[in-house]
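Appendix B, Record 12. Input sequence as logged:
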Amino acid sequence: MGNPRRWPAPPTDTKKRRAQREQERKTRQRANRREGSSLSASPASSSPTTEHDDTMASNGTAAAPESIADYATHPVGDVEAYLADALRKRILFLDGAMGTEVQKLKLTESHFRGTRFTAHPKDLLGNNDVLVLTLPDAIYTIHKNYLLAGSDMVETNTFSGTSIAQEDYLLQDLAYEINYEAARLAKRAALEVTALEPHKPRFVCGAIGPTNRTLSISPSVENPAFRNVTFDQLVAAYKEQCRGLLDGGADILLVETIFDTLNAKAALYAIDELVVLDGFRRTPVLISGTIVDQSGRTLSGQTGEAFLVSTHHADPLAVGLNCALGADQMRPFIEAISNFTPHYTICYPNAGLPNTFGEYDETPEVMAKNVEPFAQAGFLNIVGGCCGTTPAHIAALVKQLGKYPPRKPPKSVFDAKLVLSGLEPLAVDELTNFVNIGERCNVAGSRQFARLIAEDKYEDALAIARTQVENGAQIIDINMDDGLLDGVAAMTRFVNLLSTEPDVARVPLMIDSSNFDVLLAGLKCTQGKCIVNSISLKEGEEEFLHKARIIKRFGAAVVVMAFDEEGQAAEADHKFAICQRSYRLLVDRVGFNPQDIIFDPNILTICTGMDEHNNYAVEFINAVARIKKELPGAKVSGGVSNISFSFRGKEALRQAMHAVFLYHAIKAGLDMGIVNAGFLTVYSEVPADLLALCEAAVWNTAPDTTEKLLEYAERHGKGKTGGKAAEADAEAWRAEPVESRLSHALVKGITKFIDDDVEEARKQYARPLHIIEGPLMAGMSIVGELFGSGKMFLPQVIKSARVMKRAVAYLIPFMEEERLAALAAAKANGTTAEDEVEDPDAAYNGTVIMATVKGDVHDIGKNIVAVVLGCNNYKVIDLGVMVPCEKILDAAIQHRAHIIGLSGLITPSLDEMIHVAKELQRRNMAVPLLIGGATTSRMHTAVKIAPRYRHPVVHVLDASKSVVVVSSLLDEKLRDDFIDSIDEEYEELREDHYDSLKDKQYAPLATARAQAFRIDWFANPPPPRPHVLCVKVDPDYDLDQVLGKIDWNPFFQTWQLRGRYPNRGFPKIFNDEHVGAEAKRLYDEAQAMLRDVVGNRKLRAEAVYGFWPANSVGDDIHVYADETRSEVVATFHGLRQQAIKEADTTMCLSDFVAPRDSGIADYIGAFAVGVFGAEALCAAHEAELDDFGSIMVKAIADRLAEAVAEDLHARVRTDHWGYVPDEHLSTEEMLAVKYQGIRPAPGYPSQPDHTEKITMWKLMGVAEKSGIELTESLAMTPASAVSGLYFAHPKASYFAVGKIAKDQVVDYAARKAMPVEEIEKWLTPILNYDLDN
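Logged structural output:
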């Protein structure tokens, strides 16, 4: 964000402040008169002209009305009362786009600067708001033209009038002046036209735009909890803007184009503070949101209804939508708002959608015709125009719509229900079932959550919230009250992070704390209408009222605890008395909607062993009944787990007590409760003997109930179920009809009976194709649904695909026989084959070409995507690996492909993907392009690939997303909206990327080198000389000895099996309730295959490694032929960090080798290992239509190659180099890099340049001594291969070079004796500049 803004504090004395503002206004007015800016004085060669220029005085300055004594008032007196009366009688009209009219003037930089800003250090072109200072007559004329066209109200030219937005132009200090003068210009025009047409008074709307920052969305992809502005900063900026608008004479305040509701809430908060705290007059407020696409949501994810709920507390005169959409696209959303809001509606759509040049083609007549159905249907109270609209559009709307009666607002839903919102609304009333409030995001109530927060594992903690929602929580309670925790920071970070997770953010939040500062922190991060938990009377009435007013200003509902100055209430009468007193204070003195008041009459623990506690449940239930009867509208909640707290650790018993207590409390009127949503027992399912005990405990009917419950808990503490159920007959499904058997085999992945079942089906069906289209595809549809919903896992899906392939393979000969017969019949009948024979691809949902691009040999991910698509009835043409661009495009044409999918693992593959996109464009093809693979990203796809091809280019994160993407692209109903959403998302990513390049600071290379990481080589000498100084080859590396060093975590990631905390890693994943069983099955199958391929030598490994004398020279490492160090046989070139960061050192691999001028002898090593045989094994499995086996072989080969590299490195440390001969590390310690030294690989973060592999291959003679080779893109073959350098110094560590600047690229190219352009090609992903610019 740069340096934090210091917001000026306003004078505390209202009279002094007003006097100060008036003096400032007079000073500015004199300055503006001195500027004398007018269009006729413009330095442009020809002055722009506008309509109605007869309103201009002869000197080019807007004529002032004869008598305008005070712009702060209006001739109608009470503006809000006048507007409310007018809106009941007719539709009112807003103006159109200011920007469209300004664009017509063809202004240049000099117009925007005027004479006042001739020496301003920043370009002002495009800053329309500053024109109120430099070209006021032009803005005045635009206002007047709209008013004469029929507008009842015009917006001030202040859409970007906050200091935050003006900071882009270095005019932040003029924010007040800009808004003040803008309001006066518009008010002058409004009063002039009112004087001309007194029967139709005109008004000024102070326009308040969204700013260029968002409170609900992170500008950083890497840090979703980060925000580049705070709520308090926005409030301060909006207050400054609104002061200027109101002082300048605005009659109405319009908070508009809201794409982030939290920004709007900051503006509404500022307006309320101005009125309540600063003494400004109460002004009508209009609120207008922006639905960004046909999903019906704002940019920050809220539905239209949720947006209305979040802003309802401001009591706007009107609320509605503007911008982003034309009238045709806006209709369903404005209809929903019209049906929901009790306020008047406002609607000002664009003049259609922009064309390819960003212009709007909808004529005034067409737009009026498109908006007319809104008026006919009764949706409208205020209507106007947004982007692309002009005075002519407004005149057409006035003419077309003026005859229709206005909308009559419906009865308010807020008067009868508690309505909350996250991304979606939630209504609670007497007919609503009990509302579950998820309790586990509470550091005081969940040890797991508290530990994760304490360990700074916020994303893992977020998974707990997700689980709560998945288990049925309708509201999420968040509590960060811990003495060792910074509650404000923790609440801010967690709520910000949560807002980026749509599955969780869709539900409302309960911000829970006993510290009001923490409550405020949560409120400032919550765009929806949340619940504050809690306030009470324990600190007295004044403090209670103070906090309640602030909560109301945020628009939140509030939980009131049954505490007063005397303490916590335990008896029903005391509980009710406190709640009644609180109710009257909130309703009568604060103006709280009774529906937004939630009482917590304190659920206290029963069965503690103290007799006085035994009646607590009865007291609570009685208090609930009385609150619901005597305090209309109020809701009741409570922390349910408190009731059973004395039985901690005995979960079955506690759940039964909760079920019984809730059963009776809900009947008494309990609306909601804080519960563990995943552990609720149904009342009717509680065992009869336990139910009787719990009833006695809740109603306090037996004095010995506590002892009996304890006895019950001891008897049933082990959780026994009374014996193991008999296993079902594994073959019982064989008695089902053949269709059911086929479906069962597909879902379970059983191939044993598939040939027999398909043959049986063939005899029953008229054609083989009907079996594929019927029972087989029905079974695969079930597989797809289960996989899509997370109830089936990737290994199971691939086994299902194996069954499907075998079934289809069995039918192919019969289908071919049928095809030949049809051809023969066609020939005999004299007709063409095309007339008689069906398209063989007609049974598929679409055809997809898939390929690993030229130069790359990795294809596991691609193969998995192919299987998943095949399971969803897509025909997949897999072209394999290292596929040239021409072959991919030719295949797409040949097979009439609907989709092309590209895969790649190494960074050079990214350039090849760009090349494919360019060729698609050059050939004028229109096939959507999917991008995937480990090295790809959404950002790279959006910035580098998508702009090269005018048709859809979509990054696919993993196999589970592929079906959604492909089906959306091929579904005619979904396609356009999906493509629009991708285009918008990628445009934002591009903007973020280029902004990040501007914002990130990089040190010059010389400075970076001066800050190099330095080792004191005399205090920390290098390790000893390696035992051997030569190249060694192991042509048959012993795989048996590496099996214990396999890292299984990437194996499970390949299969997209991910455990949830605390069962994330191997072997803890086996304990995961979601994926554990499948992970264990997969692991067992992998072990069986390992025994086969290693024991029977179906896979083998080779290794090449060597050691040499070496010293660093600057950022390079010189490798010598021998210990004389006289002959340099190779040079490894390094790249140094340049990004300016908190650490004051920069790193390069050469830093870990002793400098030549130190006179200290040092050494370096290198290695390459590869696993051979996988290709042949995969081919054998694929010949058997066994995708599962093929993918398993590749996954195991990859794990073995990494294990060989790990084992070889261990031997290097203890033997071949021998710098830690006594090392004894476990596999877990090795995989956690607990050893001394590193083995970085070219193409990875510490040295991102793949061309360094060439030096390694030449130095070791790898290709000559082994079968490990390099492709033209420098990928290694076989695909299961690993290579790198060995550094032995204790201070050597892994790091990421990050982005580098042009000066280092030029220097690096000179050191390597390569053209800069070629170096840029290899280093494209880490350049801090765009090659296209």
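The longest helix spans residues 794-829.
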